[in-house]
């Protein structure tokens, strides 16, 4: 078994018209880690994600899943898309069916599961997202937040090993964003690999185990949150700022009030300060 669940090796990709979106991307996602991708708009994050389960095919380079190179035939793509589910930033780009049940049942039905198993998967996915009561609701009547949850249920109904989220907290208010992050932690606790892109450096710092930084279709840096956000040159190149907690911790260290640890949230910071008394 490989230590890396997903590997990207020298991948190039161009959209029609010669628009290059990926320019020699190489990276390895460590198995079991919570992974965040950071970078400005146009960095190539969304395009890269669509390569993870074969929606897009590289012009050059290789994508490997669990040590096996992706093969672009019907049977292999069907299996890899069962294992690797992608939740798009805009739920309207993902949802297409008339009702919530029809929407969430589409994937399991394409696995040729018995109708009883399909319904169980739909009910389980909707319950996990706290929206089972919406099962018979027309999709077009849902709020943005409800559509977001349905789009996640879409993927969960396939029982994937990896769930990839493109800007999952975009356009959500703080309460709903917090609930979504708790859901991400729940998926990880179940043993699923969780990967996301975000512009929120505070979220990336507090949540991720491994971070990749992208710009202009390349990976320009990466590592642990501490390594990434203490690299001033990398942050400057990527037009990223330090998370608020890192700035506060830096100031406290300069004042001699904090040791070399890197607290991930306010509770951790207060505990470090108490221990330093």
Automatic annotation (TrEMBL):
PROSITE patterns: ABC_TRANSPORTER_1, ABC_TRANSPORTER_2. GO terms for cellular component: ATP-binding cassette (ABC) transporter complex. Its main location: membrane. NCBIfam families: cbiO. Signal peptide: none annotated. Residues 6-241 form the ABC transporter domain. Coiled coil: none annotated. GO terms for molecular function: ATP binding; ATP hydrolysis activity; ATPase-coupled transmembrane transporter activity. One of its GO terms (biological process) is cobalt ion transport. It comes from Thermosediminibacter oceani (strain ATCC BAA-1034 / DSM 16646 / JW/IW-1228P). Transmembrane segments: none annotated. It is a peripheral membrane protein. This is ABC transporter ATP-binding protein. Part of an ABC transporter complex. Responsible for energy coupling to the transport system. The lineage of its organism: Bacteria, Bacillati, Bacillota, Clostridia, Thermosediminibacterales. It is found in: Cell membrane. Keywords: ATP-binding, Cell membrane, Membrane, Nucleotide-binding, Translocase, Transport. Belongs to the ABC transporter superfamily. InterPro entries: AAA+_ATPase, ABC_transporter-like_ATP-bd, ABC_transporter-like_CS, ABC_transpr_CbiO/EcfA_su, Co_trans_ATP-bd, ECF_ABC_transporter_ATP-bd, P-loop_NTPase.
């Amino acid at each position: 078994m490989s230590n890396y669940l997903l590997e990207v090796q020298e991948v190039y990709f161009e959209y029609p018209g010669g628009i290059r979106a990926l320019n020699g991307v190489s990276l390895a996602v460590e198995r079991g880690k919570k992974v965040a991708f950071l970078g400005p708009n146009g960095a190539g994050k969304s395009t890269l994600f669509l390569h993870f389960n074969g929606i897009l095919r590289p012009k050059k380079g290789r994508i490997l899943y669990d040590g096996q190179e992706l093969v672009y035939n019907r049977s292999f793509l069907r299996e890899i898309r069962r294992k690797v589910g992608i939740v798009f930033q805009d739920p309207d780009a993902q949802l297409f069916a008339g009702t919530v049940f029809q929407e969430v049942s589409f994937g399991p039905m394409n696995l040729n599961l018995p109708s009883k198993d399909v319904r169980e998967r739909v009910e389980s996915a909707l319950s996990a997202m706290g929206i089972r009561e919406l099962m018979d609701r027309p999709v077009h009547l849902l709020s943005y937040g409800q559509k977001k949850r349905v789009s996640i249920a879409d993927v969960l109904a396939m029982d994937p090993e990896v769930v990839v989220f493109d800007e999952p907290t975009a356009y959500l208010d703080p309460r709903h964003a917090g609930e979504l992050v708790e859901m991400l932690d729940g998926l990880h606790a179940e043993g699923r690999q969780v990967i996301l892109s975000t512009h929120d450096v505070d979220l990336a710092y507090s949540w991720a185990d491994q971070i990749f930084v992208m710009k202009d279709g390349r990976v320009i840096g990466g590592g642990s949150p501490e390594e990434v956000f203490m690299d001033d040159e990398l942050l400057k190149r990527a037009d990223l700022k330090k998370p608020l907690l890192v700035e506060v911790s830096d100031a406290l260290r300069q004042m001699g009030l904090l040791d070399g640890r890197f607290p991930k949230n306010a509770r951790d910071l207060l505990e470090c300060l108490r221990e330093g008394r």
